[in-house]
Amino acid sequence: MTNTAIKVENMRKRYRIGAREAIWGSLHDAVRQWLRASWRRRSEEHIWALDDVSFEIKQGEVVGIIGRNGSGKSTLFKILARITEPTSGRAELHGRVGSLLEVGTGFHPELTGRENIYLNGAILGMKKWEIDHRFDEIVAFSEIEKFLDTPVKHYSSGMYVRLAFAVAAHLEPEILLVDEVLAVGDVAFQKKCLGKMDEVAAQGRTVLFVSHNMQAIEHLCRSALVLRDGQLVYQGAVEDAIALYLKSRIGDERAGYADLRAHPGRLAGMQRLLTGIGLRDPAVPGGYRNVVSTGEDLEFEITFDCGDQVLDYAALGISALSGERVITVGTHLCPTFAATFTGQGSLRCTIPHVHLAGGTYNVFIAIGNRYMKQNLDYVVDAMQLHVHYDGYYGLDGALMPGEGHMAQRSGWQVADDPPSREK
Amino acid sequence: MALDTRQRTQESSRQHDGDAPVLPVTVIEPMRGWQALRLHELREYKALLFYLALRDLKVRYKQAALGLLWVVLQPVLTMALFTIVFGHLARLPSDGLPHPIFYLAALLPWQLFAGTFTRVSNCLVSSANLITKVYFPRVLVPVSTTALGIVDFAVAFMVLLALLAAYRVTPHWGMLLLPAFVLLALGAALGLGLWVAVWNVRYRDMQHIVPFLVQLGMFASPVVYPVSLVPEGIWRTLYTLNPMVGVIQGFRWAISGQNPPDLLAVAISAVIVLVLFTGGIYYFRRAEQTFADVV
């Protein structure tokens, strides 16, 4: 089946700049504005959140939508989900549309799990018989059997999210719009969600998926749209779309630097010794970057302020988004390092030829004292690193999800002489 | 003009596809005129209307220890207060009805109107999280909030029946017309509320204005005094344009058979309510496209 599922033509959406103030303001402001506008003819400023976007998606495709904040992703989604109306243009959706803009929309804390399943199902557009029909599956998926008749205000946040996703996941529309649902929940739950979405896609449904998680996009989608400043700049293979998006992010001046003085990733009980971490950009003197190519040298700059404490240890790790550690380097693993450091200063850590597979990684950093055998400061997810192949293999090759986090060139040939087994 | 694009597309796709399964087609484009009403959608979302109403009812009575008792206590205590203050102290006439019955018969429709109007006015703001996250016909929100008022009314009505029995008032055939007056009160509350709800999304001033309006409305309606106290002539005519005048007068007449309301006045009220209501629905549905952007 190659019928069209979604067809968008010349979609535009205009917002008025400063509209927020007028909304939260009062009648008084409105009257004043109206008076002013009547003698100075409308000089309001507008912004095109979506500017002439057209595309077509076939049935059964799983398409990612990539773009920075403010690129129009959410606006496009809100229009397709019919939450807001376009200023001009047209869209056609073939089939029932289900949207998951936020799990748990419309959950009421006073109502029990059972009551919320029905309410939430109805909000998502399910008929009563559909909810009845799927009820047991929803309960099983959410693993909350025992608490079915407990008001959800007594649920743990994990249970709440599981139940909410379960209802949404069992909605069976032909077109599913998913926006950042994976941002919630723990890793195990995120995997379960991804699995469910794989299943949905395998059933030949059309899925439109917005996320900042490039790995999830790469894993789920075969093609993607890239939006920039309200315009569609690319539609095609997911790898190219991600590469284009990551390259466009190089322009973010501070993207490769993270201030660690008040970082949410600092582990409990740690002193505030680390002040910053950055990945040096060899192309720009004094600049930072967070996009690297496979096989490149990495140079991290770590700044600290440890007062009169004398430290002699630092370690840096790179983890995949799944949480799995891929690389750990440290002063204790470097035979030429035999120094101590104190006061304010910085450390330089170089990792030659980093063989990371394409994707997004988290960087953690720790410093401490070897004699005391403890970390004095430890910040996880200090910064993110985006790796793309950039022709590492000498061709358009890339690893598939599940083929590991390490990229390694290799040589292959058909051997001329068959190996002799006798030896 | 009133032609629905959605239906048109559905039919054409049916012709093209032959025997392939026909998928419903949704067309998204800026809406114009009466097309924005999309009344056929309301049928598809019946279940949601039911669950929204059920949610309001359950949440309201779940945590309150006295539960349904509040529904009875509120009008009864107000009735007692009015009987003492307006009946015995101010000695306002009650058209020959026992004071408690005179006041309760007015309080029931008035509270139905005032409660529904207040809730409808606030409904969009209080369900902003729903409106910005998921699509459904927004008009379900105000419509579902009327359920609460109806249930409250039904419970309080039992009290009125008990009171009638206690005062040995024989039921009058006019009681059969009560549903019509209830409908008129609900129509007025929704009709006005829909307008205010839309303004409330834009100007939160409405939240301060509504309680004041309700208070004003109570004195502009014959809740604590009989209509006969209003001077006849132009003032009386203007007064009866308030739909709640006809409703309350009708209520008192329906249970006692005394002082029937002016039929012409009731007819005019009904027309006003109808215009308010139809206009309100139309205005609401036209405006609902932008709720998510501004709420």
| Outline type of chain B | globular
Form type of chain A:
globular
CATH class of the largest domain in chain A: Alpha Beta
Q: What is the element string of chain B, with H for helices and E for strands?
A: HEHHHHHHHHHHHH
The helix tally of chain B amounts to: 13
Please report the number of helical segments of chain A. Answer: 9
Question: What share of residues are in beta strands of chain A?
Answer: 25-35%
The whole-number mean of residue pLDDT values of chain B reads 83
Please state roughly what percent of the residues of chain B sit in beta strands, choosing from under 5%, 5-15%, 15-25%, 25-35%, 35-45% or over 45%.
under 5%
- pLDDT averaged over residues of chain A: 81
Beginning-to-end CA distance, first to last residue of chain A = 56 Å
What is the rounded distance between the termini of chain B? 30 Å
Q: What descriptive keywords fit this protein?
A:
heterodimer; A: 423 residues; alpha/beta; Coagulation Factor XIII, Chain A, domain 1; 2 domains; six-stranded mixed sheet; five-stranded mixed sheet; 9 helices; 24% helix; B: 295 residues; 13 helices; 69% helix
Question: Helices, strands, pairings?
Answer:
The complex is a heterodimer of chains A (423) and B (295).
Chain A: E1 4-16, H1 19-24, H2 27-39, E2 46-58, E3 62-66, H3 73-80, E4 88-94, E5 97-100, H4 113-123, H5 128-142, H6 157-169, E6 175-179, H7 187-202, E7 206-210, H8 214-220, E8 223-228, E9 231-237, H9 238-248, E10 257-259, E11 274-279, E12 291-293, E13 298-305, E14 313-320, E15 325-330, E16 344-351, E17 359-369, E18 374-388
Helix pairs in contact in A: 4-5, 4-6, 5-6
Chain B: H1 5-17, E1 25-28, H2 40-44, H3 46-62, H4 69-89, H5 99-126, H6 128-131, H7 140-166, H8 178-202, H9 206-219, H10 234-239, H11 243-256, H12 263-287, H13 291-294
